[in-house]
Design brief:
- This protein has 300 residues and is an alpha/beta fold.
- The chain has a single domain, classed as Alpha-Beta Barrel (TIM Barrel), CATH 3.20.20.
- It contains ten helices and eleven strands.
- It has an eight-stranded parallel barrel, surrounded by seven helices.
- Helix 1 links the parallel strand 3 and strand 4.
- The longest helix has 20 residues.
- The radius of gyration is 21 Å and the shape is globular.
- The relative contact order is 0.15.
- Bound molecules: phosphoenolpyruvate (PEP) and manganese (II) ion (MN).
- The site of phosphoenolpyruvate has 10 residues, from loops.
């Protein structure tokens, strides 16, 4: 395989990629990306960010949508980018969105924190080169029928243009059984972790295609060494304009992150769960204790 930049070689550590000053991937803390398939309006994105803040460290939402039918909703496009920017400013969560053309890269790169290359574009080589010249990290999804070698070579295309911040995302591959939308290839996750030094995340939503399968697949992904997850969730999952069948509710997404915590701990990782606020009585009693000490000091 003629991959000179993506392969692990003698490196044993995963490369840590900084997404913002306080969110990174490839380190002890898992990257947990949550959010809807599609940015539908400001209101649903605001609701999503406020419910997910404290359970995820990145919010997703497609604004340029690769739909099977040209008559299906194609995304909010530039207006959607402004929504992502507003939601990120208000919540402090970094954002990721898919780009499908060089022009999308130009408009999205200054606004979002990560660019996503979707499955259908994994071998769009001119697009890979374009994100290779962009300033933001790239989440590269595995093509629907791509081999592990083709996947690594797609990462190499991006890296060879200068952008070394590539995160591989296993999202299921096509097979003969249509019960699940795709087959989640956790073997590839283990192999990619061994073959490359790049962070590897898993999207169980597009793999499963059914929301009831998503949580357990997410747990399995973390148990086998994934550096993070990308999961679709929505304030009203059944009403999602795209991928409704696989979307978790926002509450189910937050509950899932709590279930991931012990698995993460078992494999030496942490989840971005906000620490519960200290109990009120504790704060009160500490205040009382310190004023009691002050009283004591004054009296002495
Ligand atoms: C998505 O993340 O919304 C998406 C279209 O994913 P994929 O490219 O994996 O199908
Ligand atoms: Mn989707």
């Amino acid at each position: 395989m003629d991959a000179r930049l993506a392969l692990a070689g003698t490196r044993t550590e995963t490369t840590k990629i900084e997404i913002t000053s306080n969110v990174s991937v490839g380190d002890k803390q898992l990257l947990i990306v949550g959010g809807p398939c599609t940015v539908e309006d400001l209101d649903m994105m605001t609701q999503s960010a406020s419910a997910l803040k404290g359970s995820v460290n990145c919010i997703r939402g497609g604004v340029f949508k690769p739909r099977t039918s040209p008559y299906a909703f194609q995304g909010m496009r530039e207006e959607g980018l402004e929504i992502l920017a507003a939601v990120s400013r208000a919540s402090g969560l970094p954002t990721v969105t898919e780009v499908m053309s060089e022009r999308h890269v130009e408009v999205a790169d200054p606004i979002v924190d990560m660019l996503q290359i979707g499955s259908r574009n994994m071998q769009n080589f001119e697009l890979l080169k374009a994100v290779g010249r962009a300033s933001k990290p790239v989440i590269l999804k595995r093509g629907l029928c791509a081999t592990i070698e083709e996947f690594i070579m797609a990462a190499e295309y991006i890296m060879s243009e200068g952008n070394h911040n590539v995160i591989l995302c296993e999202r299921g591959i096509r097979s003969f059984d249509s019960f699940t939308r795709n087959v989640l290839d956790l073997g590839a996750v283990v192999a990619l972790k061994q073959l490359t030094h790049l962070p590897v995340v898993v999207d169980p939503s597009h793999a499963a295609g059914k929301r009831e399968l998503v949580p357990d697949l997410a747990l399995a992904a973390i148990a086998c060494g994934a550096d993070g997850l990308m999961i679709e969730c929505h304030p009203r999952p059944e009403e999602s304009v795209s991928d409704a069948r696989q979307a978790l509710s926002l509450q189910d997404m937050c509950d899932l992150v709590k279930r991931i915590e012990p698995i993460a701990q078992a494999v030496g990782r942490t989840v971005p769960l906000a620490k519960p606020a200290p109990a009120k009585e504790l704060v009160v009693s500490q205040t009382l204790q310190s004023s009691a000490r002050n009283v004591g000091t004054t009296a002495a």
